[in-house]
Design brief:
Number of strands of chain A: 23
Distance between the termini of chain A: 78 Å
Oligomer: heterodimer
Distance between the termini of chain B: 96 Å
Number of helices of chain A: 13
Largest sheet of chain B: 10 strands, mixed
């Protein structure tokens, strides 16, 4: 491949550069653009034909003019990977951001990543203890799952993500998680908060950070998560690490996607987001999982803020269709001063059933979790009725359920930012709280678990 | 113009070739690596090709070769128990050839070309055979006898035929005109396979799911749509149908969905036992898995690949159930390709031909008289994933215009952990009319009347609930309070069904009928008791009713039914006597 530099740019539009009169250029090729002052930018070929080549520039098109030199590198975008990544902080396009040296590549991995053959996947079923009762008991996370946090502006999703990063562990083994942290368009303040916390707890030594801040080019955000996942895949599937990927904020990623779509004059889908956003998000989320014959795993914890707290907005909606459940953060609970303000009712873990029960957590887990759901849901619904007809109009059963909902929020959901509860502590706590309701109303509990675990009614 | 041209332009999965002589839907080999693609548009001397694999690194000027064939599947013994990608490449073979990650440029036959099958001839020399006739059989799996048929368009006198061990391409039969028949046929996926005529749908597809079978039944050869927001249980419902419906063959298309879900099906099905045959469910199942991160063009094709395989088994005279999860992802694949083609978009960016494509797909269902003279059927059950759960969007609407059964999933019910979360007020089925004679004859003479009674109770409950929301239930007259109790019993005892419980996951029609009769008996006895002066609380809280309801989770429930209902009646009567 000749390394020719072309100066045939005809149009520059948003993040896109168009040029003509090139030799055949491969689709997906990486491009270097050299400006008059000698600085360079990177881009990628989005559309190629004999007549016209469209290039998407990752660092934004500021400073590019028709005289800018364009070189096609004849390869797709690759990230140099090695175990040396661990403990490093890199920019959104993979350059060192700390004071460390360049990454010495053990290999250069294609960042797009191939799809895992569904036939080669292994069913995720190992329980991850996060130490947060609401998650461990009600929306259990398992190794290899992708479970997003659906949050909104002004809510403490970052604290929750950090607490999970700190506390997540597999009960049956001591292997630590490697945290791959991917920041997309977050503010410097948020970034500092993350880094300080990771430093404070010593977690930074076992983490890789990819950072694209709010004032970095928007289009770079499209590759940041792909770099992070490429690093995660390398560590998981070639070095047997269990990797926890946290990315924040997916909403900024989708905004960038829309920005590029608009610049390319594509036909927009719902709310202006491109029609292929589902596929694009799937290319990220589906890179979670476990694979036959490999020891490592990738668990994903994407954070997204729902615009206007609206769960039907395309970003949470399409995410929910791909991910294996969701953890929903509630403004109402937050305003009541409850941390973590996780609303368990719309939250869900699709892989929960595979990861709980005897030998994994405890035999009564499913039963207890169902009962908590049912009782809390009823209690919460009754709050609306009480507002109209008053508490006196309730019967005994309803009064107990109503009270239970308050206790559940106050004692079960609420916990300290550094408080780590084991799953056994969580389940015991649940039983203790359930003593506030007469057992004849607890129809979801199996009698045999009542006999064994109920604090006041068990039969020794 | 010739069979070989060259690439002019590449834009994602859409490649434009020049200098090539092509017809619509011809298959082409694209680029130096020979990636598989299909012609989807012609523009003067340019042919637009959708490519089924990733196109990174391909450049203008590379060759494009027209194979002259259209996208076809290989049909023959060996389809069952297989799991394919969207263009019928076995995923196990792909794993062997390229490891756990799917790369590109690998060809794989849909059928095992080496494997020898025991072929038993069922016609002899001199017999006249015509298209669709069975010339022999192969025991494909323990449960399924595969019929080797004369391909459509062929007929003649059998010149020679022999039983024995053959692979799928070896000639098993020669006709007098010299044509040689092997066990394998090829068929272009976009054309429906021929049949003689369609029958009226008058046999139900029994699924063992109470709310579906009893209130909103699907006929064999019918079509159903399941729209619902995420987390409402679409996939669990589809999987329950794939497990328990009384079809002989199940084709499951995982179209643009989660990888782990396909893994779940793959690990679970070989261990699950078919209640109708007592053998593993995998024996009757063929799966197509094109997950959300696999190439979109292959996702577009996956639905056609699946339905063609279904038609092949229908032609053998089997009842086939086809699940497509999810048709929305299929529609999105169409949208993506369409936008790359810069076509004028219809609603929400979907191509204007979306609804006609949906209609064509569902129209390949039906109970038919096959070319061979048998009866076979394809029932199509399509999941729809409407954005935000709002079914006013084009895919849901396009689907509802065609399908005869609508199973509407409800996020509210799912949140209350009421499963299956099918909303009984919104859902409908247009089949009861034509199925009722079958129910009267095979289950119970008053089956349709019982159904009407149950659904009107649910309707009345919904009206009463509106009043209860305002004034509380105590303000209602006693008979209406009883109605609420009866409706609650219908919901909690009959409509809720635990797909993960070994017994509760499947109910026979006879049991479903017995359960509803038990509910109506409770209503009737309670009315009498209350008229005789008993308190509502006393009637409702008789222990025998709780026992009756709990016992549904135990084996042998149907046999104990009479006794349990009897106990309940005598306790209610006793309550009246005390009063």
């Amino acid at each position: 491949m000749s390394v020719k530099e072309y100066r045939t740019i005809t149009d520059v539009k948003g993040p896109l550069v168009f040029l003509t009169d090139t030799e055949p250029v491969a689709f997906g090729d990486i491009v270097t653009l050299r400006m008059a002052d000698g600085t360079t930018k990177n881009g990628q070929v989005l559309d190629t034909s004999d007549d016209l080549v469209a290039v998407q520039v990752f660092e934004g098109t500021a400073g590019i003019d028709l005289g800018t030199g364009v070189t096609f590198l004849g390869d797709v975008f690759r990230l140099p990977v090695s175990k040396g990544l661990i403990g490093r902080i890199l920019s959104g396009s993979g350059k060192p951001r700390d004071d460390g040296p360049e990454i010495v590549a053990e290999k250069n991995a294609d960042i797009i990543g191939a799809a895992i053959n569904p036939y080669s996947r292994e069913m995720p079923e190992e329980f991850i203890q996060t130490g947060i009762s609401a998650i461990d008991c009600c929306t259990t996370l398992v190794r290899g799952q992708k479970l997003p946090i659906f949050s909104a502006s002004g809510l403490p999703h970052n604290d929750i993500a950090l607490q999970i990063a700190r506390q997540a562990k597999i009960i049956s083994s001591d292997d630590p998680f490697i945290v791959v942290f991917c920041a997309m368009g977050i503010t410097a303040e948020e970034y500092n908060f993350f880094v300080h916390d990771l430093e404070r707890t010593g977690a930074l030594e076992n983490a890789v950070l990819f950072v694209n801040l709010a004032d970095d080019p928007a289009v770079e955000r499209l590759i940041t998560p792909r770099l992070a996942l490429t690093a995660a895949e390398y560590l998981a599937f070639e070095h047997d690490y269990h990797v926890l990927v946290i990315y924040t904020d997916m909403t900024n990623y989708c905004e960038s996607l829309r920005q590029i779509g608009a610049a390319r004059e594509e036909v927009p889908g719902r709310r202006g987001y491109p029609g292929y956003m589902y596929t694009d998000l799937a290319m990220l989320y589906e890179r979670a999982g476990m694979v036959k014959g490999k020891k490592g795993s990738i668990t994903q914890f994407p954070i997204l803020t729902m615009p206007g707290d609206d769960i039907t907005h395309p970003i949470p909606d399409l995410s929910g269709y791909i991910t294996e459940g969701q953890v929903v953060i509630s403004r109402e609970l937050h305003q009541k001063g409850i941390y973590p303000p996780i609303n368990v009712l719309p939250s869900l873990s699709r892989l929960m059933n595979a990861g709980i029960g005897e030998g994994k957590t405890r035999e009564d887990h499913k039963s207890v979790s169902d009962q908590l759901y049912a009782a809390y849901a009823q209690g919460k619904e009754l709050r609306g009725l009480v507002a109209i007809v008053g508490e006196d109009a309730l019967n005994e059963r309803d009064r107990q359920m109503l009270k239970f909902a308050d206790i559940f929020e106050d004692k079960f959901l609420r916990q300290g930012r550094d408080e780590e509860r084991t799953i056994i502590e969580t389940l015991d706590l649940a039983w203790e709280l359930l003593t506030n309701v007469n057992t004849k109303y607890l129809v979801r509990l199996d009698q045999k678990w009542i006999d064994k675990y109920h604090p006041t009614e068990k039969k020794e | 113009m010739s069979d070989e041209g060259q690439i002019y332009r590449i834009s994602g999965p859409v490649v434009t070739a020049i200098g090539i002589d092509a017809r619509m839907y011809d298959m082409c080999r694209v680029g130096d690596e020979g990636l598989l693609g299909e012609v989807i548009e012609l523009h003067g001397d340019k042919a637009v090709i959708q490519v089924y694999e990733d196109t990174s690194g391909i450049r203008p000027g590379e060759p494009v070769i027209n194979t002259g064939d259209t996208l076809s599947v290989q049909l023959g013994p060996g389809l069952l128990t297989q799991i394919y990608d969207g263009i019928q490449r076995p995923l196990a073979t792909l794993e062997e050839k390229m490891g756990v990650f799917i790369t590109r440029g690998v060809d794989a036959d849909g059928l095992d070309m080496e494997k020898k099958w025991e072929f038993t001839a069922t016609v002899k020399k001199g017999d006249e055979v015509s298209e669709g006739d069975t010339i022999g059989t192969v025991q494909e799996t323990e449960t399924i006898l595969h019929k080797v048929m004369v391909p459509p368009g062929k007929e003649g006198t059998v010149e020679s035929i022999s039983s024995g061990e053959f692979n799928v391409t070896e000639t098993v039969c020669t006709l007098s005109d010299g044509s040689e028949l092997a066990m394998m046929q090829r068929w272009p996926v976009r054309s429906p396979r021929p049949y003689i005529r369609k029958h009226a749908p008058n046999i139900p597809l029994v699924t063992g799911q109470r709310i579906l079978d009893f209130l909103f039944p699907l006929a064999k050869g019918g079509t159903a749509g399941i729209p619902g927001p995420f987390g409402s249980g679409k996939t669990v419902a589809q999987q329950a149908l794939a497990k328990w419906s009384d079809a002989q063959i199940v084709v499951y298309i995982g179209c643009g969905e989660r990888g782990n879900e396909m893994t779940e099906v793959l690990t679970e099905f070989p261990e699950l036992i078919d209640p109708n045959t007592g053998l593993p469910l995998m024996n009757r199942t063929c799966m197509i898995a094109n997950t959300s991160n696999m190439p979109v063009a292959a996702r577009e094709a996956s639905v056609y690949t699946g339905v063609t395989i279904a038609e092949f088994y229908r032609d053998m005279g089997y009842d086939v159930a086809l699940m497509a999860d999810s048709t929305s992802r299929w529609a999105e694949a169409m949208r993506e390709i369409s936008s790359r083609l810069e076509e004028m978009p219809g609603e929400e960016g979907y191509p204007a031909y979306l609804s006609s494509r949906l209609a064509e797909f569902y129209e390949r269902s039906g109970r038919v008289e096959t070319l061979g003279g048998d009866d076979g059927s394809i029932s199509i059950i399509g999941a729809v994933s409407p954005p935000g759960g709002d079914i006013s969007e084009p895919v849901s609407q396009g689907t509802l215009r065609i399908v005869k059964v609508f199973w509407g999933l409800d996020a509210g019910l799912a949140r209350q952990r009421h499963f299956p979360a099918i909303n009984w007020l919104q859902s409908y089925s247009l089949y009861p009319q034509s199925l009722d004679p079958w129910y009267r004859e095979n289950i119970a003479a008053d089956f349709p009347e019982v159904r009407t009674e149950i659904s009107s109770l649910l309707q009345v409950e919904a009206e009463l609930q509106e009043i209860v929301q305002l004034v509380g239930s105590d303000a209602l007259p006693i008979d209406q309070q009883l109605t609420l109790e009866v409706a609650r019993m219908i919901r909690e005892y009959f409509l809720q069904q635990n797909a993960f419980h070994p017994v509760d996951t499947y109910s026979t029609l006879k049991l479903q009928y017995a359960m509803t009769k038990a509910i109506l008996t409770f209503q009737e006895e309670s009315k009498k008791a209350i008229a005789a002066g008993a308190l509502l609380e006393d009637v409702v809280n008789v222990p025998a009713r709780t026992t009756l309801m709990r016992a549904r989770l135990e084996e042998g429930y149907l046999e104990r039914m009479e006794e349990l209902v009897g106990d309940m009646c005598s306790e209610i009567q006793a309550a009246a006597e005390v009063a």
